[in-house]
Design brief:
eight-stranded mixed beta sheet, two-stranded antiparallel sheet, globular
Length: 226
């Protein structure tokens, strides 16, 4: 099969555009609704991209996944220009000593980030980092700056443990983050209902084992570093 990229101008792309046109026409929008949709073009594009990503996800045989179960892609919200120093103003965030040592110092102020796709894999059995990473896409490490910017928005969108793309049931939301000295760390974000806090913990990739029920999260390709 050819590796050539297909665009909306190719035959297959034109067919997909026609499918969108048919769905749009069937929606029966009035003028006000159509305008409201256009005003949320960024969200519409993100939702369409998420659907495309989900429907074109490479199929793998069940036996090829020993530790992970792919979940439906979520929407990665856009962020405003971000300065890691502002995190200290959030009373609902707590950072472990290792996070303060290895992740926060590696983060610098960055410009606004576009919205995109939030891919995820749920652990179906206990697994070590090396086992998890063997089943993840090749590109799955995010920079410290972008991780903190994304996590700040995602946690703010789930105040008081509100349901969403981040687990709030006591299990870990795991990211692989490029931190201090370009070392890759496992960072997990967990909601602690008793403390009403999102806690951030950071570990080196050694022999720590994650639990079935935890979730690994990946940002869009544009936000990833390796």
């Amino acid at each position: 099969m050819s590796d050539a990229l297909i665009t909306s101008r190719d035959t297959k792309g034109r067919h997909a555009v026609k499918l969108f046109e048919d769905a749009y026409n069937k929606a029966g929008l009035n003028e006000e609704q159509a305008q409201r949709l256009n005003q949320q073009g960024g969200k519409l594009q993100a939702a369409i991209t998420a659907a495309i990503r989900e429907l074109t996800r490479p199929l793998r045989l069940a036996g090829e996944y020993k530790f992970l179960s792919p979940r439906a892609a979520g929407t990665l919200p856009a962020t405003e220009a971000f300065d890691p120093a502002t995190l200290s103003q959030r009373s609902d965030l707590w950072f472990s000593d290792n996070t303060r040592k290895w992740i926060l110092p590696a983060a610098t102020p960055i410009d606004a980030l576009p919205g995109g796709i939030l891919d995820g894999f749920d652990l179906i059995k206990n697994a070590f980092d090396r086992e998890i990473k063997s089943e993840l896409p090749a590109v799955h490490v995010i920079s410290a700056s972008e991780f903190l910017a994304r996590a700040a928005v995602l946690t703010a969108n789930q105040p008081n443990g509100k349901e969403g793309d981040l687990l709030v049931n006591g299990y870990a939301n795991i990211w692989y983050v490029e931190g201090l000295n370009s070392e890759v760390f496992a960072v997990f974000v967990r909601w602690y209902a008793d403390d009403r806090l999102w806690r951030f913990y950071t570990y080196q990739l050694v022999d720590g084992q994650w639990s079935a029920g935890d979730r690994v999260l990946l940002a869009t390709a544009d936000a990833l570093v390796s």
